[in-house]
Write a structure and sequence with these properties.
Strand order of the largest sheet of chain B: 3-4-5
Order of helices and strands of chain B: EEEEEHHHHHEEHHHHHHEEEHHHH
Shape of chain A: globular
Strand content of chain A: under 5%
Number of domains of chain B: 1
Shape of chain B: globular
Strand content of chain B: 5-15%
Number of helices of chain B: 15
Helix content of chain B: 40-55%
Number of domains of chain A: 1
Number of helices of chain A: 15
CATH topology of chain B: Cytochrome-c3 Hydrogenase, chain B
Mean pLDDT of chain A: 78
CATH architecture of chain B: Orthogonal Bundle
Low-confidence stretches of chain B: none
CATH class of chain B: Mainly Alpha
Structural class of chain A: mainly alpha
Low-confidence stretches of chain A: 387-391, 409-432
Order of helices and strands of chain A: HHHHHHHHHHHHHHH
Radius of gyration of chain A: 27 Å
Oligomer: heterodimer
Chain lengths: 432, 380
């Protein structure tokens, strides 16, 4: 029988841990983002408050807390006030099913992936409410863009996870797949380095791309594209309401990275994260349910999980420093014409291989083919975008070439440009 | 004051919904209008149907100020016209006065003018490219560009005493001779710049998202470019080989030939590439001029009070944005009777409404940035 007292303590500890994590993660990430970006951009970054400016984001938070909430007279009050909360609530809720270690799990839900996808779709409502309730044109366009974007990227995001679920059915002992995060992490433990990123690299890349779009990060930060829309749906917000969106966005980044870690990077698996080893070697066992060996194991597990999460969040920063942003219609094209077909193909190929290839070679072949698919995807991407440094020829050059080829004068063709202007004239002699 | 093109139209959409055009006011305080340009745009969904630029928020009456200053004192006010290329502005004004008076600066002064002008062109193009990429959402290039530009501004400070509003050109030459060791420092800056140029090229040019955002966007065909009076990189990116440094050479450009950068793209990408390669060409010109730098005086002797003979003149230089012309009328006194600046930014702005029509909202900044406006010169 389970110890009720232990369960309550466990629940309190984990809830506090996650709330603390969401709040501090934003502060840490803002600081890291500014410092890492500064490093990449050949500048110093924050440096005044605390050692190496490390208290900068703490002061920023204090400023936001003390700031007056200013809003326009024209806002639709109820919607405007509710929007940040509705945006933030699913973010906090999503931590329910994320396992940071066997102990640091609020509830090992059997329907983990399903709940995660459901909650991440809820964010859209908050964003759209913010855009609509602000009663401002920039906010409206930002909100609309964001809604379209988040809904579109929901699909490839979900589909890219299907490959992983199929793999669990193969790897697990009973042959039944699972959508529970804990089960999926456990499936990657035999041996501990057999992470699904080795078998599904394409899945991880697509999932991560969709994650960038879900969290409105560069290069998909159109809803808040400052050069076009000032700040998108955030334009009219200030003070703590604004900070709520900010916190939610960074919380979303944390969730996306955590899910990627759990599903593709083996969760807490890493050197030293081995429960049997610690049980065998740590003899000091005061008895009870939670032993010292468990404690050591869980600390190491959380450590590895966080290392992977922050490595992935670092890539968020790296991407933001490097890439310009896409245009709204190009963004949609990318989701519907490239990502969704690619994920469907991935599902099909993985399923066929898992069924068709005989036992000892299955994983090798699946992994190998998926790497080939990844390369194909990258080639497709450059082709589909149609970009080449040489550039496409403008219509008037093409028309001229066509005319030269066929020997027919193209009607309405501009004259060769050099002839339309006089060649260099001599200087007027009088004034020199 | 601007007139908004027309009242919003109400239409029955295909599905029977009533749709409405939206008027969006972009600027004058907007993160990407490069100063205080105001664009009144009529949007249908995300598509721009009309666009009216509203200018005049930065009007300081520079032309009128020039009429109320002596010829020598006017040079300083030219710095503020196109505030990203003061050296070029001053060269234009000083050149116009010289042409009016019929004097020729010494060879050394002309070479120094060429060197500083090309430095200024690099600095201006660096800002153009950096801010353009910032508009498109890439955060890093602007910092790389400004880092390189900083070196140039330091060199300007050494030679002219001021980083930004240099006030360096004089009628009949330049203010100071080059300080000791300045040429070596410029040389080492150029060596560094070669690497930075490659860095920029690698970071930006091959980027698929950047190409997708710029290729085919804001397309100007050559006839249109000539008809709208485009000059500078915009004209050359449309395939028209027209560069005042080549076609009507002035100063030291008569001795140092320029290879103009001409591209046939005609779109925003072509204009970007044109600027990028013009920086390389400018670096080459500086090196050549440094190697051939003659000795001698840096300024001809002119009377303390300049009184050009009665008459009028037009003198134009190839600024970083295009043809920067100064039209002067002298009535024989110490003050110009009329001074008119033909600002390339102002003329280039004309084509913006034409280019915007039918493009998406996201392309507005991609087009505006590729035109490379400086509102100080548009409004004057």
């Amino acid at each position: 029988m389970v110890n009720i007292g232990f369960q309550i303590v466990h629940f309190v500890i984990t809830i506090l841990f996650f709330i603390f994590l969401v709040a501090t993660n934003a502060v840490i990430m803002v600081y890291l983002e500014r410092k890492v970006m500064a490093l990449m951009q050949d500048r110093v970054g924050p440096k005044h408050y605390g050692p190496f400016g490390s208290l900068q984001s703490t002061y920023d938070v204090l400023k936001l807390l003390l700031k007056e909430i200013v809003r326009s007279r024209e806002t639709d009050n109820a919607i405007f006030m509710l929007a940040p909360m509705i945006f933030f609530a699913p973010v906090l809720t999503a931590f329910v099913m994320l396992p940071f270690s066997p102990f640091m799990t609020t509830s090992a839900l059997g329907t983990g992936i399903l709940l995660y996808v459901a909650l991440s779709s809820l964010d859209v409502i908050g964003v759209f409410m913010a855009g609509w309730g602000s009663n401002s044109k920039y906010s409206l366009i930002g909100g609309l863009r964001s809604t379209a974007q988040m809904i579109s990227y929901e699909l490839p995001l979900l589909l890219s996870l299907v490959g992983v679920v199929m793999l669990t059915s193969f790897v697990s002992h009973n042959g039944i797949g699972s959508i529970s995060f804990t089960d999926i992490i456990n499936a990657q433990m035999h041996p501990w380095w057999l992470w699904f990123v080795l078998l599904q690299p394409l899945g991880l890349i697509i999932y991560y791309t969709c994650g960038l779009a879900e969290t409105n990060r560069a290069p998909f930060d159109l809803p808040e594209a400052e050069s076009e829309l000032v700040a998108g749906y955030l334009t009219e917000y200030s003070g703590m309401q604004w900070a709520m969106f900010f916190l939610g966005e960074y919380g979303n980044m944390l969730i996306v990275s955590s899910v990627a870690t759990a599903l593709f990077l083996g969760g807490w698996s890493g050197p030293g994260a081995d429960l049997a080893f610690w049980h065998a070697h740590v003899t000091a066992n005061p008895g009870g349910i939670f032993s010292v060996a468990d404690l050591i194991f869980n600390v190491i597990a959380v450590f590895w999980f966080l290392v992977k999460v922050y490595a992935l969040q670092g890539i968020f920063i790296w991407v933001r420093t490097t890439l310009p942003r896409l245009r709204a219609d190009q963004l949609m094209q990318y989701a519907w014409l490239i990502l969704i077909p690619m994920t469907l193909l991935n599902i099909l190929v993985t399923a066929v291989l898992l069924l068709a290839v005989p036992q000892p070679y299955t994983l090798w072949v699946t992994g190998g083919v998926n790497f080939l698919l990844l390369i194909g995807y990258i080639i497709l991407l450059t082709r589909a975008i149609g970009a080449s440094p040489k550039g496409t020829l403008p219509p008037w050059v093409e028309a001229r070439k066509r005319a030269a080829r066929t020997g027919l004068g193209a009607p309405g063709l501009p004259k060769p440009p050099a002839a339309s202007l006089p060649p260099g004239e001599p200087e007027p002699a009088a004034s020199r | 004051m601007a007139t908004v093109n027309e009242a919003p139209r109400y239409e029955e959409g295909a599905e029977g919904f009533r749709t409405e055009e939206m008027i969006l006011n972009m600027g004058p305080q907007h993160p990407s209008t490069h100063g205080v340009l105001r664009l009144v745009m009529t949007l249908e969904g995300e598509t721009v149907t009309h666009c009216t630029p509203v200018i005049g928020y930065l009007h300081r009456g520079i032309e009128k100020i020039l009429e109320n200053r002596t010829y020598m004192a006017g040079i300083r006010y030219m710095d503020n016209a196109d505030y990203l290329s003061p050296m070029l502005n001053e060269t234009a004004y000083a050149g116009a006065v010289e042409q009016l008076m019929g004097i020729e600066p010494p060879r050394r002064a002309q070479y120094i003018r060429l060197i500083t002008n090309e430095m200024q062109r690099i600095a201006s193009h660096l800002v153009a490219i950096g801010t353009y990429l910032l508009d498109l959402g890439a955060f890093t290039p602007i910092l790389y560009c400004f880092r390189d530009r900083e070196g140039l501004l330091e060199l300007f400070e050494e030679v002219a005493g001021s980083r930004f509003n240099v006030n360096y050109m004089r009628v009949g030459g330049v203010l100071h001779d080059l300080p000791t060791g300045w040429l070596q420092r410029l040389e080492s800056w150029l060596d560094k710049f070669d690497n930075s140029w490659k860095e920029l090229d690698v970071l930006i040019t091959g980027n698929e998202i950047f190409m997708k955002r710029t290729q085919g966007v804001g397309y100007i065909d050559p006839d249109q470019a000539v008809a709208f009076g485009m000059t500078g990189p915009i004209l050359r990116a449309s395939g028209v080989n027209w560069d005042l440094r080549v076609n009507r050479p002035y100063g030291a450009y008569r001795e140092i030939p320029v290879n103009p950068v001409v591209r046939e793209d005609g779109d925003a990408f072509g204009r970007y590439m044109c600027r990028l390669y013009e920086m390389k060409e400018s670096a080459r010109l500086i090196r050549e001029a440094m190697a051939a730098l003659p000795g001698g005086p840096i300024c001809t002797r002119t009377p303390i009070a300049l009184r050009p003979p009665r008459g009028e003149t037009y003198f134009a230089v190839e600024s970083s944005k295009g043809e920067l012309g100064i039209y002067l009328i002298s009535d024989g006194t110490e003050y110009p009777y009329r001074a008119k600046i033909r600002g390339p930014s102002f003329v280039n702005l004309q084509i913006v409404p034409e280019l915007m029509r039918g493009h998406k909202m996201g392309d507005v900044v991609a087009i505006l940035g590729s035109i490379d406006l400086v509102l100080g010169e548009v409004d004057r």
